[in-house]
Amino acid sequence: MAVYRRGYQRYQGAYTSHFTRLLAFPRFSWRRLMSQRLVDIVIIVSLFWPVACMLFVYLCHHTELWQGLGGGLTRILSVNGQFFHVFMTVQSVFAVLLAALAGPGLIAPDLANNALPLYFSRPISRLDYVLARILVLVGMISFVTWIPGLFVFGMQAGMAGWGWLVSNWRLGAAVFAGFAVWSLLLSLVALASSAYVRWRIIAGAVVLGFFFVLAGAAQMIKQVMGADWALALNPGEAMSRIWKVMLGVELDAGPGPWACALALSVTALILCWILERKLRAVEVVS
Amino acid sequence: MSPVIELDNLSVRLGRREVLQGISCRLGVSGTGRAIGLLGPNGAGKSTLIRTLLGFHRPSKGSARILGYDCHHCPLDAKTRIGYMPENEAIIANLTAVAFLRLMGEISGLPAEVALEKAHEVLYHVGLGEARYRTLGTYSLGMRQMAKFAQAIVHGPEILILDEPTNGLDPIARRRMLELIREMKEAHGMSVLLCSHLLKDVEEVCEEAVILHEGRLVHHSDLEEERRSNRRFVELEVTGDDTNLDAALRAHGADGVTEGCGRWRIVLPPGVEFGELWALLAQYNLGVHKLTHRRDTLEEIFLKAVGHIRQTPGDEARSEEVSTHGRL
User: Fold this and answer.
1) What is the ipTM of this complex?
2) Architecture of domain B231-325
3) Nearest chain B residue (CA) to A129
4) B84 touches chain A (CB under 8 A)
5) CA–CA min distance A32, chain B (Å)
6) Is B48:A285 a contact under the CB 8 Å cutoff?
7) Rounded distance between C-alpha atoms, residue A274 and residue B7, angstroms
């Protein structure tokens, strides 16, 4: 019978699992985000670099194509930790752009429209809500970070052979884990700014500002006080130094990986605290 | 029979202020489709009570249970069974009504395809069928109220918590909203907790009423019972010789007191209706100026409960009569 004829019938069937309910948020958000032209453009442009890297890997294994260019080039072209570090650094910038574009639209409209009481009056906790929103961003950022990264790694492994894979498996693990941590941090930054600033455009600017301002502040402290540890205050630099260690690339002077990990952990905790304060069904003024 | 809502010495503190103070009561009967009216002046704690039931506030003392589930310790179990319509504007403006209801259905636990079907079904049912593909931001206030109501019932909850559902509605839309609420309880067996400033709405829809005042429960009554007992009290004004009326009333099992000048207050026994009283008055050849049920309206109950009036107007004269005649 047509829907408009049969009237309201109360649902009597079984309810879906908790995890299925959480996945409803990402499905709705991804559909909406993918319909935004700017987001599509950033995703497409961000895939140029992985394609270039794949081409590089291909050329590294087909030396006959550029033998006429001189033997010195053979020594430069090698796929190692340094190569993947450059790859990750470039892609991390696109990830920041994507977070700045997609993140603010996730929480700010819910706060502006007072939709949180509707969500939290359902079998969804605040933690569930944040996890679902993080899933939206992590899923989207994955398209430009670890997924193309593993493609590049897989291509190299396929062309270099089993021996290379056995001796360099940690490069693949580092690409995945390093990008996972970066995606998580970006998601927290984007969600916290979205929760703190209810105006979407401003919230996007805050995400970009977060990285630029902290980078500037870290450099300033380093120059004025001569303290190398200040570099750990720059989330991008801290992440980069951790990636270097994970990829087996030599670290230059500055804070070690543990100091950087501690700085990032403290940043993440502060962002979680902001989310905890801001994401409430009702605000209580004491 | 298990209650729908069970409050046991419930206290809620917000900041330094104790907004709810030791409320204990059992409201509604599970599965019977009764509506409970939640009343109280501004600042009485109605919204805080609703939010505590929804798990938004943590009780500082005591407990609140919905359908047997503790709202603080098992919030997800309780919320699975709740449909909530908030008082404030609470929609996602850039979603179409169908997408909005579908999302709400899915996060309430409906499978995706069922949620889509229910979204269409409910929107047609509340009268938004033709506007279901419009974004909610373009809706008028009345349409938004209906959309909020629709999202509350899309997953077929066992209990509906409605906070000022008729706010901003014109008389026709208000009537439609009240009809829908009545339908949800009578045809679909949902229990309803209706919070409203409009006593008439509560009177029309609810079987029970709870009145809060300054964070305390000051009145809990069964409106059905009140209505039944009100029907037994009659106010009568007659012309003619009514000296024998007292005895005649007694003969019929009724009890009456005269206030003089032909004015009477009568308590009818169960089973005796107006028709018999008319016949009696005709038998004694008395002219009737006025014959009405004494109505202790919800407004009077409310005003008494919150201390704005000491008793129902007219009760004073009656109590004096009682002390004089020792009856009624």
Assistant:
1) 0.84
2) 2-Layer Sandwich (3.30)
3) B107
4) yes
5) 10
6) no
7) 33
